[in-house]
Design brief:
alpha/beta, Metallo-beta-lactamase, Chain A, seven-stranded mixed β-sheet, 20% helix, binds nickel (II) ion, binds manganese (II) ion
């Protein structure tokens, strides 16, 4: 599984010739290099309706004829705009041609105009490797249950504070999730979420967990 950071909370994930994009906030994202018109994917996963996550999902869905996978109300909002979609809800999983997606809880919000459904995170399994994208969320103790779902090869966790977990809580989240690799996200895009990712790295005491700080455009393999 190849995981590429596209800036903020956007990642592309590739395995065995299939590719998905998560939270494709590209236009208007000061950290993104990828252009929506250059995205070639089999699916678009969206955690919630805030503009810094929904982003260019509808345009990418239309151009690729790729379903938007996300919370029921949000996907229906996107379908009304011409996207294709696959609705899910918290706790559900589904086997797609590219892999399995399970929708997890996230403690956050989502705009009324995008349907006011629940925000979420995703557990994505492709070719036996599991990725956890937490979405925007505060810390919650059920992350220990998510950590028991199976070996999480890579976890993508917000550290920006103010709107989501900050560094201290993300360090606690790592203890519950016990991923092979953790990648911080949702920081330094805007001044209000400026953080030093090296402080996050320094706080991870479990030597079994590798911390990868990615710049936009950089990838890792798990
Ligand atoms: Ni948000
Ligand atoms: Mn956000």
């Amino acid at each position: 599984m190849k995981i590429t950071f596209e800036g903020h909370s956007c990642f592309t994930v590739e395995s065995n010739g299939k590719k998905v994009i998560i939270d494709p906030f590209l236009n208007g994202n000061p950290k993104a290099r990828l252009k929506p018109s250059d995205v070639k994917v089999d699916a678009v996963l969206v955690t919630h309706g805030h503009a810094d996550h929904l982003g260019d999902a509808v345009e990418i869905s239309k151009k690729n004829n790729a379903p938007i996978i996300g919370p029921y109300e949000l996907v229906n909002y996107c379908v009304a705009l011409g996207a294709t979609g696959h609705t899910m809800n918290i706790g559900g999983s589904y086997n797609f041609p590219f892999g399995k997606v399970k929708m997890t809880i996230a403690h956050h919000g989502t705009p009324a105009e995008t349907g006011a459904g629940n925000p979420c995170g995703f557990l994505i399994t492709m070719d036996g490797k599991m990725l956890y994208h937490a979405g925007d969320t505060g810390l919650f103790s059920d992350m220990s249950l998510i950590g028991q779902t199976g070996k999480i090869n890579c976890a993508l966790l917000p550290i920006g504070d103010n709107f989501t977990m900050g560094i201290e809580d993300a360090i606690v989240a790592v203890d519950m999730l016990r991923p092979g690799v953790v990648v911080p996200m949702h920081y330094n895009t805007f001044d209000i979420i400026n953080q030093d990712p090296e402080a996050f790295r320094a706080g991870i005491k479990d030597k079994a967990v590798k911390v990868e700080i990615l710049n936009p455009g950089e990838s890792l393999e798990v």
